[in-house]
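Predict both folds.
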Amino acid sequence: MRVSKAIIILIGAAAWMGTAAMVQAQTYKDRQTAIAASVLPPGLRNVGLDQKLNEQVPLDLRFRDETGRELPLSSYFGARPVILALVYYQCPMLCTQILNGLVISLRGMSLESGRDFEVVSVSIDPTETPELAARKKAEYLRRYVKSPLGWHFLTGAEPQIKELAHAAGFRYAYDPKSKQFAHASAIMVLTPTGKLSRYFYGIEYPPRDLRLGLVEASENKIGTPVDQLLLYCFHYEPGTGKYSAIVMNIVRLAGALTLAIFVPILVWLWRRDLRRDHEPTGRVARVR
């Protein structure tokens, strides 16, 4: 009888935990908003972002770093996954918000640039100089604090910029009237070999999502067992550029955790009842 009651409790607890997990997963909503193309001037309606997942970016393209050295993109790839931000350094608003969101996300992760990943910011404005890139780098390294390594601010010639942007699916346009560039707000995560792995939209990048994107891009060479557990429960949705909950996997995990907790209790109760059933009647009577 006691064992039967324990089984009922076990089943009830598993059901409750599974239901709670489903409710939590279903309340995970995408808060990303997009600007409709119809509100843009006719000349800027082709601005946007085309996801080219698993496609290779040309690593032989050459850009100048903050010191003025001209190096191929391959200099920043090979050992670690790479976060790519296509921006321009004199942007009055959106690019600053992208870089601000990126540095906030980087500070929220235990992973570190230069050790676990690289960050490559490339200006889409061919008139910008390494001196400007150096000032921008100094500004964001002061804010990042964690590591002075692994965050690169590059400038380049227009043909190289356009080829890289095209390979990444990053469609932008220059507006002569405002003398500004219209472009999408997003960052990309690439594998160590230079293949596009993840896109994150907007100007805010949840540290959990960015971390999982880096772990996946590294083919699990960075991260912890906790990251593997999270990747079991969350998957990347290209349409939103976010990680969302896999309801059934969460339910399975909740059930497994429930069993791991309650099965030892159930076994202990069963053994206790078994011992009592084999105790001499007189001894039981004296105890009572």
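Second protein follows, with its predicted structure tokens after the sequence.
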Amino acid sequence: MLFACSALALVAVIALAVQGAPVFSGMRWVPPAATQQPLPQNLTGQTDSASPAPHELHQAGRFDISWFVVAAAVLVLVVVAALIWRAVRRRLQLPERDVLPILPDALGDAVPEQEPTPEPVQVRRGLDLAHDRLRERREPRDAIERAWLGLEEAATDSGMRRLPAETPGEFTARVVVRAATDRAAADSLLALYLRARFSDAPVTAADVYRAREAVDALRESWTAEPRSAAADSGGAGR
């Protein structure tokens, strides 16, 4: 619609440029003057007719349409300007929204420096819940989504504060990335959840198997940290 109006305005401007500026004059048709009494003529002579000539009738039938062209061009320019202003104003008023949760790399960079570490017991509980739900008899898509919801429940109780602009998925991803030492497993599990939750692509049993492997890897990486810490404390006591 915008391009059509612009093209029409351009054609009108070109027509005005070719025709030139309109010149407004008086009436082109002048009424005939009052006829005087003809002088006596010979009976055999021909009398002049009082009717106007055909050329005068043709001139009287012409109308000046230059004012109509100018008015149409002005109207088109006003409509085009209004449409452009409306489009620009609407674009400036639209808020920027994220369709999908932020990926772990961006979340890891945006973590506040003074944020506390998630509680190990709650993170472990969420991983165990995800592990159990992935082994239940469910549809592949539903199994992956419910496993991630188990992690969301644990993230809520992990001691970390959810930011005002964060969605539950963003908050859970940030907790998992900060807590787990196996970053590749966390990335794989998050990618599977995003595919199952926000994509129309088919989710198969192979995807559920990959999600199980990711959860198992996260459980092993999370339990490895307390064991190493306990070993260090035991060696120091000796």
